[in-house]
């Protein structure tokens, strides 16, 4: 064996830290070059540096919790929402039941879980519109004007009675059931309310704007041992990007085979072996949407111009995107969803928006991104057929693809694309969040996902994408939160509890059966732990031959990759 191969095998064998397991364990053990690159890129920080990062994150979260919330007074005694509310608005509806886990500490200091059923009305399209309309009726004419201006594309009405709250919907010309715009994630109601509350200097929205612009309270996503992290702020100038790549081919673990394709201005210290994922998703995709929102929140046109420049750079320069048989679909879905939402916000709010930019972006997304997404959703994946096998059923991929389809469908007024996204969303919720129910109840807690025991990191990717797709549907006056018996609400409750326990490093806060990664036993010598989606168990495999060494005994549910 060549010395380089020996070094790569040794690196793979030493790939045992929490984040190396989380980010690299899907790479086959015989793919030593890719595995070594992933393990190297995700080397743990020195203990002292890791402690500093953790302390800084806790400090940021603690400061964020000190923001005053006078808006919650509406729920207090005497407030407009303090009593029973007829959410049915006079309609004759049969109440539905939403089951959610509730957590309490017992006398021994452990955590007990009780499933509580809550009665909720099925949210029909007419009822959703009535709720939105009533919410605006309770507000002021300036608030309603803000919403109306966004619904009409940015020209604010002078009438105090404008903005009924019903979605107007501006079609780009397909002729079929036009979509409400903006509607890729935040609708006119949400964006208009944000602007109005900022004008009123509401503490919560003012703090959120400060966090968006400065990065205050945003934990740093430090990459490997270099200490580099994507920007947490949203500067109006000097971002450093865009970072478009003419050829982007990403493999499992976010690794690219040819670093010569990396952007010329790629940030120093950023993981070179992961430049495709980093440039497209964590830098430009994220910054495009943040910048679009920053324009809405500040009125500073430099933010809007920056978002538009990012979108135009990728739609004009990128000519190849993949690899569709490995990580290409996931990367495409992540970037597609964020960039589509950015374009949607710009169209509704920015006078400098150009239809030609939208047309170019949609054409590029359909030609470069969607072949990857469609290949996963309809060739590699079994979800639409009702199956649930192999690692393709992890779920966070399906959630990301659904989010992308919904966001791009709304942006381009493509009803067929949107409907496919909603179909995939529902199938994902039904299978990904089936645990703790019916035949899948034994040994499971309501709210667990197919990936919860794998790691929280990937699970939150899935839950985040599902929430974003559901919010986009809400902007179109439809409720997708009710899918599979409101399973998404249960999952959010459970995983919030797990993350809070990890933040405090307090295992007693975890539901019964869960343990922190620090208590996970080491794999046998020469072996590494890998998660089995089919078995829902951990097993160890030889780091060089790939042969199975052992199963992880005890049946504990270990918490990996929580942030």
TrEMBL record:
Alginate lyase domain ranges (all copies): 284-499
Biased composition (Low complexity): 152-175
Region of interest called Disordered, as start-end residue ranges on this chain: 135-181, 220-239
GO molecular function: lyase activity
Transmembrane residue ranges: none
Top-level taxonomic group: Eukaryota
Pfam families: Alginate_lyase
Keywords for the protein's UniProt record, in alphabetical order: Lyase, Signal
InterPro entries, A to Z: Alginate_lyase_dom, Chondroitin_lyas
Protein name as catalogued: Alginate lyase domain-containing protein
Species per Swiss-Prot/TrEMBL record: Monoraphidium neglectum
Phylogenetic placement of the source organism: Eukaryota, Viridiplantae, Chlorophyta, core chlorophytes, Chlorophyceae
């Amino acid at each position: 064996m060549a010395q380089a191969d020996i070094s790569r095998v040794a690196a793979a064998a030493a790939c045992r830290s929490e984040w190396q397991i989380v980010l690299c364990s899907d790479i086959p053990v015989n793919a030593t070059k890719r595995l070594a690159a992933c393990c190297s890129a995700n080397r743990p920080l020195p203990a002292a540096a890791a402690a500093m990062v953790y302390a800084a994150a806790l400090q940021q979260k603690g400061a964020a919790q000190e923001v005053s919330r006078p808006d919650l007074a509406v729920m207090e005694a005497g407030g407009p929402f303090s009593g029973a509310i007829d959410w049915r608005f006079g309609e004759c509806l049969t109440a539905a039941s939403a089951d959610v886990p509730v957590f309490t500490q017992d006398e021994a200091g452990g955590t007990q879980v009780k499933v509580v059923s809550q009665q909720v009305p099925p949210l029909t399209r007419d009822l959703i519109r009535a709720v939105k309309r009533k919410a605006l009726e309770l507000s002021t004419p300036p608030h309603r004007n803000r919403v109306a201006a966004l619904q009409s594309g940015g020209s604010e009405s002078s009438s105090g009675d404008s903005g009924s709250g019903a979605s107007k919907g501006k079609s780009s010309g397909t002729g079929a059931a036009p979509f409400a715009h903006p509607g890729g994630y935040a609708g006119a109601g949400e964006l208009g309310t944000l602007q109005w509350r900022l004008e009123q200097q509401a503490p919560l929205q003012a703090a959120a704007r400060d966090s968006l612009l400065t990065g205050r309270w945003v934990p740093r996503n430090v990459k490997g041992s270099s200490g580099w992290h994507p920007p947490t702020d949203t500067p109006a100038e000097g971002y450093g990007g865009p970072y478009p790549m003419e050829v982007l081919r990403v493999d499992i673990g976010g690794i690219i085979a040819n670093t010569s394709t990396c952007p010329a201005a790629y940030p120093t210290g950023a993981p070179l072996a992961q430049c495709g994922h980093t440039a497209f998703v964590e830098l430009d995709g994220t910054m495009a949407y943040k910048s679009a929102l920053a324009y809405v929140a500040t009125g500073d046109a430099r933010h809007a111009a920056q978002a538009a420049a990012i979108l135009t750079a990728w739609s004009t320069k990128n000519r190849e995107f993949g690899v569709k048989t490995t990580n290409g679909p996931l990367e495409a879905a992540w970037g597609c969803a964020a960039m589509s939402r950015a374009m949607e916000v710009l169209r509704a709010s920015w006078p400098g928006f150009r239809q030609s930019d939208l047309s170019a972006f949609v054409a590029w997304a359909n030609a470069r991104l969607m072949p990857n997404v469609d290949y996963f959703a309809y060739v590699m994946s079994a979800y639409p057929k009702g199956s649930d096998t192999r690692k393709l059923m992890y779920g966070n991929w399906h959630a990301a693809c659904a989010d992308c389809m919904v966001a791009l469908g709304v942006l381009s007024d493509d009803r067929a694309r949107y409907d496919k996204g909603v179909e995939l969303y529902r199938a994902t919720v039904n299978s990904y969040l089936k645990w703790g129910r019916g035949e899948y109840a034994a040994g499971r807690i309501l709210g667990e996902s197919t990936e919860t025991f794998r790691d929280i990191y990937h699970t939150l990717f899935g839950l985040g994408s599902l929430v974003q797709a559901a919010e986009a549907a809400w902007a179109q006056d439809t409720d997708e939160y009710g899918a599979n018996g409101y399973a998404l609400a249960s999952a959010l409750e459970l995983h919030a509890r797990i993350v809070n326990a990890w933040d405090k490093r307090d295992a007693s806060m975890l539901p019964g059966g869960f343990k922190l990664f620090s208590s996970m036993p080491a794999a046998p010598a020469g072996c590494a732990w890998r998660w089995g989606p089919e078995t829902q168990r951990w097993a160890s495999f030889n780091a060089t031959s790939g042969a199975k060494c052992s199963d992880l005994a005890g049946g504990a549910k270990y918490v990996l990759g929580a942030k």
